[in-house]
Amino acid sequence: MRKNLSWRKGLALGAVATLVVGVTAACGSSGGSDTAQKSLGKNDTLTITTFGDFGYGDLIKQWNADPDRPFKVHETQIAEWDTWKQTLTSDLQAGTGLTDIVAIEGDAMPQFLADGASDQFVDLSDSSLDNRWVDYKAKAGQTIDGKQIGYPTDAGPEAVCYRADLFKKAGLPTDRAQVAKLFDTWDDYFKTGQEFVKKVPGTKWYDSSGSIAQAMLNQAKYPFQTKDQKVDVDNPDLKQVYDTVAKYADTLSTKAVQWSDDWQANFTDNGFATMPCPGWMFANIKSSAPKVKGWDIADAFPGGGGNWGGSFLAVPTQSKHQDEAKQFANWLTDQAQEVGAFEKAGAYPANIAAEEQLSKSAKPDPYFNNAPTAQILANRAKAVEPDLPFKGDKYSDILGLFQTAIQRVDEGKSPESSWKTFVQAVSQLS
Amino acid sequence: MSDHAPATVGGTGRTSTSRSGQAPPAGVPSPDHRDMRRTPARLTLRQRLSRWDMKVSPYLYVLPFFLVFLVIGLYPMVYTGYLSFFSWPRFGAGHGPWVGWENYSHVLKDPVFHKAFWNTIGIFMLSSVPQVIVATVVAALLDTNLRGRTWWRMSVLLPFVVAPAAAALIFGALFADKSGLVNDVLSGIGLPTVQWHANRPASWLAIATMVNWRWTGYNALIILAAMQAIPRDLYEAASIDGASRVKQFLFVTLPSIRPTMIFVIITSTIGGLQIFTEPRLFDTNLQHQGGSSYEYQTLTMYVFNTANSSTNPYPRAAAAAWILFLIIVAFALVNFAITRAVQKRSHA
User: Fold this and answer.
1) Is residue A83 domain-shared with residue A227, that is, in the same domain?
2) If A408 and its partner were Cys, which of A95, A418, B229, B329 is the partner (CB 3.0–4.6 Å)?
3) Dihedral of CA A363/A265/B283/B111: which sign?
4) Is the ipTM of this complex over 0.95?
5) Do B195 and A412 touch (CB under 8 A)?
6) A61 and A186 part of one domain
7) Residue A98 lies in domain
8) Same domain, A151 and A180
9) Cβ of A257 and B112 within 8 Å?
10) Residue B155 vs residues B140, B143, B211: alpha-carbon distances, Å
């Protein structure tokens, strides 16, 4: 009997010990940054995750069809950045689960460049790529000590997209050169909007309070954090953006949350007449309203220029194929591929040679009433002030809370109480 | 057989000790085992095996569960508790220094946590309580002599088969603020429309509806099974004594299914306090914070969102998870105490 007991005890103890050791060992090894590298053969697959539409579908198809390419590529597309951000964040911390290349949205890049976070990414620095991208984009993908964490895929110079048919209804000019004159300053923009909604009562002036807030924010110097990364949201610049958007929420805004079903529906049922339009928004408009005729693009932006978004490709250190990943990220952000991505999805290149090529071709886009989209975006890119806004390590987090604060106002909460909730939520971030 | 027994036993002894590298010669029992082996009646291998089978097998059969539980249940729980006392920079590869109870105090002082707590209680009250009541009534109806009984019983379970994500999408469309069917009907009959996402109690009701739709039938079937086990002669006796159908239900059915009721109540309490999928997919806020003013952020959503926040994400989420665990334990104990008290009273 006693022998049986000790045998059982021994077995149990052994099992527990094996498990505990096994589990701890597994955890220990996954946390390290020296992932064993395995080179890829011709039939092996490199993986990449993007969000929205990067316009890579055809490019990757071409790559895979070419027998001379050293490996195959598989792309996972996720619909929205915010969803992908959460997965990316938790998989980075878990040390496992990510693809070889990950796409990172421009506004969120600063938090991945911060100390500690940047160790999770491979340094992609390559002196042969100096001067490949516009300076402010290349710098936005670097850490303070100059490690290149992300290769810029695109830039987001903003124009204004508008519905010429609805403008006609309101008695406004419809020609894009004439329309551009209406959008010189934010005051002009809002004034025209008030005229418009009086004439066309069923339609609002812009697509969402959030997109206007985003556009105005991108012209502020230090919206959320001071130069030394101190969080400071009680500043006049930010307050002005907030007050303006809150003021016009009832009259000019659809009050729909960006990317929501209601927002999407407004594209087809004449919900609004204008929207801030970075190049990558073109594809969104086309897919949301394929049958609507009347969309056009004005070569102007209220208050000067503005850059909304523009993403990066990064390689997490957990990748087992870092060299191949770097090689493929390099290929995707080269001239020909960035031009291809623009033609497919409207992602305006951050690549200088690609920008030059596009502005020479000046191909008209039939969907947008034959607007020379590349030409317009090239002009808009020139208007962008490269250092605006300053994006600290918590930029993306505070931006999310700020958008939520505006959503509360849209839903009918008082701007004052919503602001208080926002300040409170920001203080919980640290 | 019996002649062979000592040799075989010796053989077994050899294999078990030779692993340690100090094997005695074959067939010679090691001295320290000799006394023990002599005292009981000598058994054949087959007998020994069958004795082992009786004693050990049951444990072996339940062992896989406990091994799996150890790896994916107990270990994460203990590690979560351990982690909740450290700092961990965002995206860092490992945890930082010990910070004591700081993460717990951060969570307990967070106004969003307070909101999430009351949201969870609110949704729980609107879901689990009516769910158990309705399930009992439905079960009682199914227990009668309906035509096409099996068909009725299966259709009650139908919502449970639908994936929660699909159900949440359907109900999200029904309860959409502007284009939703529910608001269309409300305005059609001249009632004011409801802001299902911005009005706190309304959002709880919408989410509770999803949960109830999914789980009521499931609970009804469990209760029905208990009802079918009640001896029919009890009802006969009751009706001879002149008890009405309602009285029979109250004084025969309900007391007889009490153990099952306790099971259903406790499982739906635990489930109710861990609601996640429904509110998360119902959410229109881009940051998934359960409505722009956290109207329907639940505690599990709080844990999930905290794990993605900017400072000490994992330790704070770990602290929140442990607080949630303690809340559930407290609820379970209260449940237990109440049902015990009720039972005692009915026995007395």
Assistant:
1) no
2) A418
3) positive
4) no
5) yes
6) no
7) 45-155+310-364
8) no
9) no
10) 15, 15, 17
